[in-house]
Amino acid sequence: MAAACLVGCERGASSGAASSSPGPASSGCPAVLARARAAVARAEQPRTTWDGPTSGPRAVAGGRIVYVAQTMTNPGVAGAAKGVQEAAKAIGWRVRVIDGQGTPAGIQAAFSQAIALKPSGIVIGGFDPRLTSQQVAKARADHIPLVGWHAVDAPGPSKDPELFSNVTTRVRDVAKVSADWVIAHSRGHAGVVVFTDASIPFARHKSELIKKQLATCPGVRLLAEENIPIPDTSSRTPQEVSSLLSRFRDRWTHSVAINDVYFADAAPALRAARRKGGGAPFNIGAGDGDPSAFQRINSRQFQAATVPEPFSQQGWQILDEFNRAFSHQPASGYVAPVHISTAANSRGATTWDPPGYRAAYLKIWGRQPHG
């Protein structure tokens, strides 16, 4: 498989050779294909019960949380913030969201503002805490617990940087099942473009894992990796997609993006090139699953699938993790399993909202369900 730029590509840069088109002459990957199909089938199954925590401390009174957002233009960051706000109403706490505007200086300023408010806890919403090492140290000195959302690669507690917990699906699981979907959907013969944001370590790591899994099937070719920072997607993606269409034409059959927002901005260029909304390139978002992604999937408009984050559930989990921190109890350790949403299984939904968590958290907190 052609090597792509691995780390620190130039902004908006593309890499890729793989000039030969995958086709019937390729040996394919029957064993890998069989495993990919099984993994995708499991991930597409609907969940019917809550598999998370059912016990923990009752709600501490008077919690004040500040959610520092990497940028509220990132649908995932905004979706998790909305979940935190919903959970705060249920537990009886106050939440303030401060937008870092997607720049290091903006995020650092937002974090400093959060600390100055002397809250009970601060959420690191979708950015690398190492970017704000001084603010993290100040929060620690002020005994303000930190809970991350997609802040570091691994879910659960983190020692360096020090987080009480990091709420996320397992990046390796999301990356693997996204690549498996491409392998299964293409029957082991695909020309793939990967869209990433190398400025975010979490995203860069995800795209590396995606490429590694794609490489397990010789019939799948990596055509290019497009490094487009998420704040720049609306301005850069249409131009890059037009260039890709010119370079690869029908060899480009599938795409994987670390965030669904790339396909929102790719759609106009694909439409202008007279591509069919339900045809190639078949696109899957390796994470997030915001409402616009579901709308594209359900209407078959330039996105076929997503591996959605359960934003609302994760927002409730963030509040539950803070409640455990305030109660001097360990983190819950819960990690939501991966799920693939398609037009066939989403049933018209505009978000992935697994069942049972609201009632479970309300019971843990000693709150009565509304209605």
Low-pLDDT parts are: 1-26
Please report which band the strand proportion falls in: under 5%, 5-15%, 15-25%, 25-35%, 35-45% or over 45%.
Answer: 15-25%
Task: Tell me the major beta sheet.
Answer: 7 strands, mixed
Mean pLDDT: 91
Secondary structure tally, helices: 12
Compute the separation of the termini in Å. 56 Å
What topology, given as strand order, has the largest sheet? 1-9-8-10-11-12-13
Overall, the morphology is globular
Question: How are helices and strands ordered from N to C?
Answer: EHEHEHEHEEEHEHEHEHEHEHEHH
The helix fraction, in percent, is: 25-40%
Verbal overview:
The chain has a seven-stranded mixed sheet with strand order 1-9-8-10-11-12-13, sandwiched between helices. Strands 3-2-4-5-7-6 form a six-stranded mixed sheet, with helices on both faces. β4 (121-125), α4 and β5 form a beta-alpha-beta unit. It is an alpha/beta fold. The model is unreliable at 1-26 (pLDDT under 50). It starts with 13 loop residues before the first strand and ends in a 6-residue tail after the last helix. It contains twelve helices and 13 strands. α7 (233-248) packs across α8 (261-272) and α10 packs parallel to α12 (357-365). The chain has helices at residues 30-44, 75-91, 104-116, 133-141, 171-185, 201-214, 233-248, 261-272, 291-298, 311-326, 343-346, 357-365, and strands spanning 14-15, 64-69, 94-99, 121-125, 146-149, 156-158, 163-167, 190-196, 220-227, 254-257, 282-285, 305-306, 341-342.
